[in-house]
Write a structure and sequence with these properties.
The protein is mainly alpha-helical. The protein contains four helices and two strands; from the N terminus they run ββαααα. A hairpin with a 2-residue loop joins strand 1 and strand 2. It is elongated. The chain starts with a strand and ends in a 9-residue tail after the last helix.
């Protein structure tokens, strides 16, 4: 199901999309934000809050797919405990995750307090997407390093 935001932006309902697809959709929408902000600040505010809601959903999916490596997924009865060898979540990454998730929640439609904070400019939204991309890369690197540090946890062949 698609929701048309304005003549040139379409935000897709993302509940079943993987993290990479979610980020791709947000990156495409992000390209149109400066023009929308100049043409209609009210429509821009509505759309950017929607995008921050999608960003918050993407952070939630990062927990499943990146931090916990699909060990446990919503809506499934499978728990893949052998993949625990990849899980390591250092404080610095946890703090970055918390800050990004908090920011996404603050600026989304679902937060009643969103009306009391300034609407982020298009450049800020771009920066927040870039921060999430960097966080995902760092989480993946940490995950790979965790496996290297735990050779005894590799499945026996």
């Amino acid at each position: 199901m698609n929701q048309t935001c304005c003549p040139s932006i379409v935000v897709t309902r993302q509940h079943h999309f993987k993290t990479i697809r979610r980020l791709g959709d947000q990156l495409l929408a992000m390209l149109l934000l400066p023009k929308l902000n100049a043409a209609s600040p009210a429509e821009y505010e509505y759309q950017v809050k929607n995008l921050y809601g999608r960003l918050r959903d993407t952070y939630e999916r990062v927990v499943e797919e990146v931090i916990f490596r699909d060990i446990v997924r919503r809506g499934t009865d499978v728990i893949r405990t052998q993949l625990l060898r990849y899980v390591r979540f250092p404080d610095a990454l946890a703090i970055r995750f918390h800050e990004g998730m908090t920011r996404a929640n603050t600026h989304s439609h679902d937060n009643p307090a969103a009306d009391t904070v300034a609407v982020p400019l298009p450049d800020e939204f771009t920066e927040h997407i870039s921060e999430l991309e960097a966080l995902i890369a760092d989480l993946k690197a940490e995950s790979e390093a965790a496996e290297v540090d735990r050779p005894q946890m590799k499945p026996k062949k």
